[in-house]
Design goal:
The chain is built from 26 helices and 27 strands. By secondary structure, the chain is α/β, with parallel strands linked by helices. The chain has four domains: 133 residues; 284 residues, no CATH class; 180 residues, 2-Layer Sandwich (Alpha-Beta Plaits); 79 residues, no CATH class. Helix 2 runs antiparallel to helix 16 and helix 25 packs antiparallel against helix 26. The two termini are 43 Å apart. 38% of the residues are buried.
């Protein structure tokens, strides 16, 4: 568990979140909701608009029931005899096969047997002659038999019942790989032609086109299920009839349909048996007007050796579609373009393996971004992103251009972009939280300048316990019990008084790069060189301590004036300060529920002990040896004793600080420093008379430094030692048994 936690911390929260997002995105691609599919389809549309199919080969023509033909020949539907004339004319001109993008679902109402009932004042002989004439449907069926005609059928949303002869008219199917029906478009019913036409035709196929959800035709089913029976599309059936093939072969796998075809043709499809149409721009040269054909205005070479589709471009007949390359195109031309692309072997495909390739690309790119991006700079990120973009788009374009294979780049690229912005966003949030945490955690205890530096460079803040050399300061109010007793009946006033005291003391510390750790009643704990490095920590601590005394003096003067004005009692504040430098551990200290940034270590304890000893030496400031040695070139430091504090056996030389550089350079300080050293030497040699003589000189030459209390301590010790001499081997160390 510990290793796992360490790995998780090393891996990073942002990476972990993005890894979960990557898993979710891969799951989303597998589900393929409409927005994901829509983006992919629009990308494929764009490919076709950039490079549509080159339609220089035209194996298909369209016999168009256009507006001009309707104007010249009358409204649709025309008499079936007229349609038979069109079939005969096409056959005479050498059409290979004819397919109908229309359905003749009802008997022709203009047949002689039908029209006779509509005529009035007709004699019996004429009525009998008309009744004996063949129906228009029979005439058209006879025209069907003389050439290869594939009639069209249409899917309907309601269940229908197959006629008795349907079994003999069904196209045969064979399947390799498993049942294809679960993957195919399934229609409950179908709209057929009148039986005589169905029986006379060479084939029967669905001309139903199912647009995408956005209304654009991209894929057309070429094999479907209707009335629980496999049925071919009009184009597939025309190809089967032309190639004189038997059954249509469907190849499947666990992902769905792979291809549909027969010996001379294998057409790749999507998993639902749909063909991706490789469109070329709509072109009127594909069309022959039906009126022009009937009236002999079409040259034979326009039709000879070609497949013919009969359909309409007339707007009033409502067969207009939208494709990736055309805003509006007759539905019959879509069938023509399917035949063209199949016959010229320019069929688009989106193979079943493409999904696996896209998911693998998505996963690899996502993992690369998650692992590498946080460690890269802006330039490297830009280069990496540009390389990924160019590589994916280039690969997709290559497969489309050279192999007619559609590969989706939008999802891998979209995933990469999403993960990139997620990483940026998560890191931004973490940075904002980190900055907010730094401001809230350190804003009250560091100067605004240092807090600003931390928020700009949070890497300088190493949490969790870091060993470093630090300088610790403790301060305490002397005689605070007396002050608190005076305000025992007015605790609110005592609180106000303490706030007035703590504010300038805190400011003195923070303005000199110190960190205020905590307030313990009237006591203050602060330290230097954490959380930010401070190469002048000892100097800043000494400067802060002198500034604290200066500000305390001003505060006492204010208290005195207020006491005089109010007639109250003046209670001056006096403080003791202990400062020590040494190795500590800095970091978050506390429990799982409450913690703060603090320090631990023996050097901290010694600083606390030195603050307590300041009242024994009757001095406001006591320094440990490490602090004094580091500050002696800038501050007037004076050794005052060699001691051991409670809990320690190693002796520590302790010092006080009398002033800044101006005091250090003064003749008076040099003189007091010299005689103070003589006094300590004599004292440690048990030369009591010599020590007392040196003290008298020190009192005279150092009268302005306020050291009388210190020398009184030594006078008292000497008197005690005269009565109770220390051992002969005494090393001059004074041991304190209390804190």
């Amino acid at each position: 568990m510990r290793r796992l936690a360490q790995w998780a911390r090393k891996f990073g929260l942002a990476r972990a979140i993005c890894l979960l997002l990557l898993i979710g995105l891969v799951w989303l691609r597998a589900k393929d909701p409409f927005p994901v599919e829509e983006v992919r389809l629009r990308t494929f549309d764009y490919f076709q608009r950039i490079r549509p199919r080159d339609a220089d080969k035209r194996p298909v023509v369209i016999l168009d029931i256009d507006e001009a033909s309707l104007k010249e020949l009358g409204q649709w539907p025309w008499p079936r005899t007229q349609v038979a004339d069109l079939i005969s004319r096409l056959s005479q001109m050498g059409a290979v096969a004819i397919g109908f993008d229309v359905v003749f679902a009802e008997p022709d109402r203009l047949s002689p047997g039908k029209i006779v009932d509509l005529l009035r004042d007709i004699d019996a002989e004429t009525r009998e002659k008309l009744s004996k004439l063949p129906s228009n449907d029979d005439v058209l069926a006879d025209a069907f038999r003389r050439t290869r005609v594939v009639v069209g059928r249409s899917a309907v949303g309601e269940a229908t019942t197959a006629p008795d002869q349907e079994a003999t008219l069904q196209t045969g199917f064979a399947t390799i790989g498993g049942d294809a029906k679960p993957y195919l478009y399934n229609f409950p019913g179908m709209l057929r032609n009148v039986p005589v036409l169905e029986a006379a035709s060479a084939g029967r196929g669905f001309f139903t086109i199912v647009p995408e959800r956005d209304g654009i035709v991209r894929r057309v089913p070429i094999v479907m299920v209707a009335e629980d029976t496999l049925v071919p599309s009009l184009t597939l059936e025309m190809l089967r009839v032309v190639t004189q093939s038997g059954a249509i072969l469907i190849r499947t796998n666990q992902a769905g349909v792979l291809s549909v075809g027969f010996p001379r043709f294998e057409i790749p499809t999507d998993r639902n048996g749909r063909l991706w149409v490789h469109f070329s721009p709509s072109d009127r040269s594909r069309y022959i007007s039906a009126a022009d054909l009937l009236h002999g205005r079409v040259p034979p070479e326009k039709v000879k050796g070609k497949l013919v589709l009969v359909g309409t471009s007339a707007v009033g007949l409502l067969d207009q579609k939208t494709t990736p390359v055309d805003q509006e195109i007759p539905g019959v031309e879509i069938h023509a373009q399917i035949l063209e692309s199949v016959l010229t072997k320019e069929v688009l495909s989106y193979p079943n393996w493409a999904l696996g390739a896209e998911v693998i690309a998505t996963v690899w790119i996502g993992i690369a971004i998650i692992l590498a991006l946080p460690a890269l700079g802006a330039v490297a990120t830009f280069i990496l992103g540009g390389g990924v973009l160019a590589g994916l788009v280039g690969a997709a374009w290559y497969w489309f251009l050279n192999h007619d294979i559609l590969i989706d780049t939008t999802f891998p690229l979209g995933t990469a972009a999403f993960l990139y912005f997620a990483l940026v966003f998560v890191n931004y949030l973490r940075e904002q939280q980190q900055r907010q945490w730094i401001r809230s955690a350190f804003g009250l205890f560091l100067s605004p300048v240092m807090v600003g530096e931390l928020t700009r460079s949070p890497d300088k803040l190493k949490l969790g316990g870091e060993q470093r050399r630090m300088t610790i300061l403790f301060s305490d109010v002397r005689g605070f019990t007396t002050i608190s007793e005076y305000y025992k009946d007015d605790p609110q006033q005592l609180t106000s008084l303490m706030n007035r005291y703590l504010t300038p003391m805190t400011n003195a510390i923070t303005e000199h790069k110190g960190y205020v750790d905590k307030y313990i009643g009237d006591a203050i704990m602060a330290f230097w060189n954490a959380p930010l490095d401070d190469p002048e920590q000892e100097l800043n601590a000494c400067e802060a301590s002198l500034e604290m005394l200066a500000r305390l003096k001003l505060l006492n003067e204010a208290f005195e004036r207020e006491a005089q004005e109010s007639g109250g009692r003046y209670l001056p504040f006096r403080i003791g300060i202990g400062i020590n430098t040494g190795l500590c551990v800095a970091g978050n200290m506390g429990s799982d529920f409450k913690f703060n940034y603090s320090v631990l270590g023996d050097s901290v304890n010694l600083a606390s002990r030195l603050e307590g000893r300041s009242k024994d030496y009757r001095l406001p400031i006591i320094l440990g040896a490490n602090t004094a040695i580091a500050a002696k070139e800038k501050f007037a430091t004076l050794e005052i004793d060699l001691i051991t504090v409670k809990g320690k056996t190693e002796p520590e030389a302790v010092f006080t600080v009398l002033g800044r550089g101006d005091v250090l350079e003064s003749a008076e300080f040099r003189e007091i420093s010299d005689f103070n050293a003589r006094m300590l030497t004599s004292f440690r040699k048990q030369d009591w008379d010599g020590a007392l003589a040196a003290i008298e000189i020190c009192r005279k030459v150092g009268s302005s430094f306020g050291l009388d209390g210190l020398y009184n301590v030594y006078v008292e010790r000497i008197a005690e030692f005269r009565q109770h001499p220390p051992p002969a081997d005494w090393d001059g160390v004074f041991a304190y048994e209390t804190k």
